[in-house]
Amino acid sequence: MFTHRHLLGIEGLNQTDITTLLDLADQYAAQNRGPHKHGQALAGLTQVNMFFENSTRTQASFEIAGMRLGADVMNMAMQASSIKKGETLIDTAMTLNAMHPDLLVVRHPHSGAVNLLASKVNCAVLNAGDGRHEHPTQALLDALTIRRRKGRLHRLTVAICGDIAHSRVARSNIMLLGRMENRVRLIAPPTLIPSGMDQLGVEITDDMREGLKGVDVVMMLRLQKERMDGGFIPSSREYYHRFGLDAEKLKHANEDAIVMHPGPMNRGVEIDGTLADDINVSVIQEQVEMGVAVRMAAMDLLARNLGIVKPTISDA
Ligand code: NCD
User: Fold this and answer.
1) Does the beta carbon of 263 lie inside 6 Å of ligand 1?
2) 103: helix, coil or strand?
3) 305: phi then psi, degrees, rounded to nearest 5
4) Ligand 1: which of 10, 137, 169 to mutate, judged by most atoms within 8 Å of the beta carbon?
5) For residue 211, what are the contacts with CB-CB under 8 A and spacing of at least 6?
6) CB 226 within 8 A of CB 167
7) How remote is the CA of residue 163 from the centroid of ligand 1, in Å?
C-alpha cells in the first residue's frame, strides 16, 4: 500500500513504495504505447504545475501525464507571476490553495522550498526538482528504465558520473539505488563531489576508466554551470577529456552496460554525441518515455489517497 500524501523525495520511500510505483508505471508504459492512451484516474481533479525554474521535459511530461489520466491541467506561467512583483512563495501557495487544486507539481531553485510549500497547502504536492535537494520522479523513471533493461533493480553496479555536487538527480538516484540494494559508484573530479558523500555507502573515484570497471549502468550528469559560483573545472575541453563519456571509456564497463542521461545534454562536454545517439547502448529516449508513465503512476497513487469521493448521481 502506498500511503503517502505527497511525493517530496525518495528519502521517505521504502522498497515496497518504490516497487508499487514502478509496477503501476509499467502498466502505464504499456498503455502509452497503445492506441488508447486515456484513462479516468484523475477525472474531475485539478492539477496545477508551478515551475519556478526552466524545464522542457519534466514540465511537458507532467502535463501529458495529467491529461492522459483525465485531469484538468493548468500550467502557471511563473515568469509572469506575482512572484516577480515581490509576492512570497507562501502567499502564492495560499492563493492557489484557495482555488482548491488537488495536485500541485512544483519545481523551485531552492532546496527545501517544495517541502515548505507542502506544509501550507491541502492538496497533494509532487516535487519536480528543488535546488540540489531531490528530484524523485527522475530517480523513479531512471529506476524503471533500468529495471526494464536489466530485468531487475537490485544487485547492479551503477556509476553516476560528473557534476554530483549540484545535482538533485544524483542525490535522489543515490538514495533510490541504495535502498534497492545496488552498488553505487560516483565518478567525478573531487571539486564536484559534495562532502559527506562517503557516508552514504557509495564508492568514490576520480578515474573514469577505473570507475567504470564492472559497471552495469553508466549514468551521466550535465555540468550544471548555472549552479556554479566559481571555477569548479579548468575548462570544458579538459573536463571532456577526463570525464566525458565516449566509446573508448565505455569499453571499461560491462559489455552489456547501458548509458543514461537525464537531459538536457551538453554534447561534447559530458558525453559524446554519437554515443548518446547509439540506440544499442543509450537509453536516453526510453528515460523520457518512462518519465510520463512514472508521473502517471505517482499522481494516480497520490490521488487515491486524497480521500476524494467522486460525486454520484444521488449527490447531485
Ligand atoms: C535535470 C534537472 O532539472 O534536475 N533535468 C531533468 O529534470 N530532466 C537535470 C539537469 O538539469 O541537468
Assistant:
1) yes
2) strand
3) -90, 0
4) 169
5) 159, 161, 185, 187, 203, 205
6) no
7) 12
- Is ligand 1 within 6 A of the CB of residue 108? no
Q: Which mean pLDDT values do the consecutive 10-residue runs of the chain (316 residues) have?
A: 96 98 98 96 97 93 98 86 76 90 96 95 97 98 99 98 96 98 97 88 96 98 79 85 97 98 95 98 98 98 78 40
**Residue 222 near ligand 1, beta carbon < 6 Å:** yes
For the record, the C-alpha cell of 197 comes out as 558523500
Instruction: Count the Cβ atoms, other than its own, within 10 Å of residue 131.
Output: 18
Helix (H) or strand (E) holding 278: none
Q: So what's the pLDDT on residue 229?
A: 65
- The dihedral over CA atoms of 76, 51, 120, 99, expressed in degrees to the nearest 10, equals 10
User: What distances in angstroms separate CA 48 from CA 143, 176, 241, 262, 303, one per listed residue?
Assistant: 26, 26, 43, 23, 13
Rounded alpha-carbon distances, angstroms, from residue 117 to 36, 85, 113, 282, 303: 35, 19, 6, 36, 18
Residue 231: per-residue pLDDT: 72
Between the CA of 154 and the centroid of ligand 1 the distance, in Å, is 24
SS3 content of the chain, % helix, strand, coil (to 5): 45, 15, 40
Specify the pLDDT at position 236.
87
What is this structure's pTM? 0.94
